[in-house]
Amino acid sequence: MTMIIRDFRPADAEAAAASYSAGRPHLLMTPEAVSHLVATATPEQHYRLLVGELDGVVVGSGRIGLHAFSSTKGQGFANLSVNPEARCRGVATAMLAVAERHLAEHGVTRIRAWVDDVPDSVAFAERHGYVRGRSAHFAHLDLTAGLRPVPPLPEGVELRTGADYLDDPHALYRVDVDGTQDEPGGVDLDGLGYEDWLAEVWHRPDLDRDLTTVAVADGGPVAFSAVHSDGATRYWSAFTTTVASHRGRGLAKLAKTASLHRAVARGYTDAYTSNDATNAPMLAINDWLGYRRCASEWAYAKEI
Q1: In this structure, are 62 and 162 located in the same domain?
Q2: Where's the N-acetyltransferase domain (predicted)?
Q3: I need a surface site. Which of 44, 105, 131, 288 has the fewest CB within 10 A?
């Protein structure tokens, strides 16, 4: 058996995307999105996409880099995926060694990693010195089974789509920055500027702007539900957020429900979402919509 750990090449896009969701059908990643994330990473992120080969076949990938947009310096991430049939053959261990060395060379003192809530993955993380933190849950919605009706529009509110903001999405950027400041999670992103947001969020090739739904009030966007899709049958809730001044009016529920109805009309069959275990408002919305938990993961961290 010959093992090679190396950096991503454009020809690896399909295999790298497949390894991301191999054994984890609740995750969605397209080859185009893989290539985009590599191409648009800023120098400050020191981003690398590793691939692991066994006998010339790509069987795993590792996404590593710095949280360059966080006000807390010295934080990095290392998220690894290995195809089920290739596990327990040293690929993840070899990729992790490369990742830790790379991050240490660029000043990282704390590495964060998301780990599937399954015994083998948890044991791997803890065996390598990672300590468990917060949890998150994935949920699935069968779009062929019928949906809750779209809630009535509150007075003074209208719904638009992300496609209505193609010429100038800056208003959506403002909603994203405002709405996610107090979102549960271990890393703040208060240093994410508009140009970086355009590259990382708005120009992602799997961002479905027609399904992304925006609630407009008081002259501008105040909430939206952003969607990634595979362009065929699978729908992923990338993030749903509301500015602080307009919370408590049901706008997030309204936007997400309307988006799901658009997805059904286009023939989509499966919707997935993920939420921090402490994000009670979004968990309640997803329960109301009919999402059912299908997997979980843990945030692990290691001081280096």
Answers
A1: no
A2: 3-154, 157-304
A3: 105
Per-residue pLDDT of 152-199, as tens digits, reads 999 999 999 999 999 999 999 999 998 877 666 555 556 789 999 999
Q: CA nearest 271: which of 148, 128, 85, 144?
A: 144
Q: Average pLDDT of the chain?
A: 95
Distant-in-sequence, close-in-space partners of 299: CB < 8 Å, separation ≥ 6: 112, 113, 114, 115, 132, 133, 134, 135, 136, 186
- Range of the structural domain that residue 208 is part of: 141-296
Model confidence pLDDT, tens digit, residues 27-65: 999 999 999 999 999 999 999 999 999 999 999 999 999
Buried b (16+ CB within 10 A) or exposed e, 229-238: bbeeebbbbb
Nearest in space to 92 (alpha carbons), one of 65, 61, 132: 61
What strands, in cross-sheet order, belong to the sheet with 220-229? 3-7, 48-54, 57-66, 75-82, 110-116, 292-303, 131-142, 270-276, 234-242, 220-229, 213-217, 157-161
Whether residue 275 sits in one domain with residue 180 = yes
Domains in the chain, number: 2
CATH number of the domain residue 57 falls in: 3.40.630.30
